[in-house]
Amino acid sequence: MEFILNPDRERMELALVMALLVNGRTVFEDFSFAAGVEPFAEALKEFGLSYVQQGHQLVLEGKGFQYALPSMLPMDMSESRCVMLWTLASKDMEQIYTFAAEEDEAGIAKVACAKEMLQKYFKVKPVSDEAAKFTFTFAAEDLPIKKDSLGNISTVMRNRILLRTLIRGEYISFEEKGSVHDQWTKMLAYFGVNLKYEGRGMEQLTELERRMMMARGQKIERTQFTELSETQVITGRDYYIPGDTTEAMAFVLLATIAGIPKNTEVCLKNVDLNSSRAGALTCLKRMGGNFETVSRRERFGDVYGDVMVYPLASGKRLQGRRFSEDTIATGLEEYPFLAVAACFAEGETILRIPKEIRKEMRARNEALAENLRKTGAEVGVYDDGLVIRGLETIVNGSDFDGGEAPENGLALSVLSMALENDEPVANVELVERTYPGVLQKLAQMLEMATAKPEES
Predict the structure, then answer these.
(1) 8: which DSSP letter?
(2) Cα 224 to Cα 162: distance, rounded to the nearest angstrom
(3) Which CATH architecture best describes the domain 245-455?
(4) Is the confidence at residue 346, as pLDDT, over 90?
(5) In b/e form, how buried is each residue of 235-263, taking b as 16+ CB within 10 angstroms?
(6) DSSP string of 222-272, one letter each residue
(7) Residue 276: pLDDT band by 50, 70, 90 thresholds?
(8) In the chain, where does the domain assigned CATH 3.65.10.10 lie?
(9) Which letter, b or e, does each residue of 31-45 get, where b requires 16 or more Cβ atoms within 10 Å of its Cβ?
(10) Which of 123, 138, 229, 314 is 20 to 30 A from 349 (CA-CA)?
């Protein structure tokens, strides 16, 4: 069985920004829009990006660094989208921008939210500040770089810093620890931006320095160094946006926990395998998941490939593992899938989330735990994540509710399918909007895997 996944949304959004900055034509190969990305592409048209779909290609014409500046800035998109669009606008420090809405409770709240997000990522100069209207210009100076508890810059801020430096023709360098979410960084390098991105650690030390550090008992930490210098022009190149890692995780998890026949083979085509994006697949592999990359391609500045998925061997179980914050940071969208896998694992699984997002993740974890306890598994919610003790056999569990988190909904849908529930997970329509067609493909995989020989 072969399945083609929806393209990765985050990579597509970044690639559209890149195409605007190209001085000329860029071609996206084997292209289809990821769910919900077209409004972002339309917003980039206001900056001068033009594109047309020709068969399986999207042909784009960029404006280079001389892109247009819109009169209005969007404030009703996701944080990552707004920040990239506002960063493009921040190139001009003379132009006055306005956030405005209806002068009612909802409008006032909308402007306040946009203003708070703006001041989180930018230095601005207010021109006027009213309840439902905020007028401002962007400041020449930038906010100081702040690193999180893992020694990294947050992904949205990191992407903003690199984009701001690029469009202003400036220079910046910084070092980070741990796994860096680097899709944008690698894309910049692929398109010819004057950027250095390399790991540093023991190899940068002399033999004497290494011995002295070892004698003192000091840990030699590996860091990631990023340096961006002025780039005069960016020329167009062909590009490809691989399949969504979250959807791949859904297929792998279902094949692992559904008890399908041992001779089943499922091939997922062209999955995004960027190490800072596909960390949850590595985690599931450590737990005993039976899958492998059978065709690995290092093209277009990054890594993608075909993933072959098999059921667990007879008598085998997943094994509980402890995953640290830096490991989980490379697969946050797939966090609920690891929680579902832990319900089937032998022993205890600990999923620790980075300190900076614990508060916002608490409610989602509470909702996820409430659903998972319906299987009989022991699920504890703590400030730093989840602790789960799995069961050898799970036969019960229904009435799951994905709530407002599509990743939760998709993970719980996989669990529901594995338990052969007839009723869909509540709020499944959000899953379908975010990952169109994936539930049908998962059901098809189960049906084909369990079909009798005469029905195949």
Answers:
(1) P
(2) 15
(3) Alpha-beta prism (3.65)
(4) yes
(5) ebbebbbbbbbbbbbbbbbbbbbbebeee
(6) -EEEEEE---S-----EEE--B-HHHHHHHHHHHHHS---TT--EEEEEEE
(7) confident
(8) 8-138, 245-455
(9) bebbbebeebbebbe
(10) 314
The more confident residue out of 355 and 315 is 355
Instruction: Tell me if 267 sits within 8 A of 1, measured CB to CB.
Output: yes
Is pTM beyond 0.85? Reply is yes
Residue type, 384: D
* C-alpha closest to that of 395 among 216, 258, 204, 235: 258
* Dist. CA 450–CA 261, nearest whole Å: 7
Exposure on the CB side of residue 312, measured as CA atoms within 13 A: 20
Domain 8-138 in CATH 3.10.25.10? The answer is: no
| Angle, CA of 432, 434 and 435, to the nearest 5° | 65
Q: How far apart are CA 32 and CA 190, in angstroms?
A: 21
Nearest to 361 by CA among 388, 389, 328, 322: 328
* 302-339 residue pLDDT tens: 999 999 999 988 778 999 999 998 889 888 899 999 99
In the three-class reduction of DSSP (H, G, I as helix; E, B as strand; rest coil), residue 171 is classed as coil
The mean predicted confidence, pLDDT, of the chain is 90
Which residue type, as a one-letter code, is found at position 349?
T
Three-class DSSP category at 27? strand
Give the whole-angstrom CA distance, residue 63 versus residue 65.
Answer: 6
Query: What is the radius of gyration, based on Cα positions, of the chain?
Result: 23
Q: Could you read off the pLDDT of 174-196 as tens digits, one per residue?
A: 998 867 789 999 999 999 999 99
